From TrEMBL:
SUPFAM superfamilies: BolA-like. Interacts with NFU1. This is BolA-like protein 3. GO terms for cellular component: mitochondrial matrix. The keyword Kinase does not apply. The lineage of its organism: Eukaryota, Metazoa, Chordata, Craniata, Vertebrata. Pfam families: BolA. It is found in: Mitochondrion. Its main location: mitochondrion. Acts as a mitochondrial iron-sulfur (Fe-S) cluster assembly factor that facilitates (Fe-S) cluster insertion into a subset of mitochondrial proteins. Probably acts together with NFU1. It comes from Aythya fuligula.
Amino acid sequence: MAAAAGLRLRGPLVLRCGPWRSFTSRTDGEARVTRVLREKFPRASAIRVVDISGGCGAMYEVHVESEEFREKRMVQQHRMVNQALREEIKNMHGLRIFTSTPKP
């Protein structure tokens, strides 16, 4: 549309929903999603949540390592995470899910 109006864009288009943040600090959304996952997966050996939307809470990447996933197919594991986050997902634009079982 910009090209049609005679405007020229330079460089990549960068969308920001808030000020950039350091990835060493946690957002309130990351803490909330982590808390929900810890409650739903008490046997999890590792949970990592990263707001990949720049800090505004529109999109998250979650990594959950839990014994509860053992002998379940990946689609079943991801459904378990989706179910656990069903209320939080209502306010998200997107969610990347990575699941695994602990190494013996």
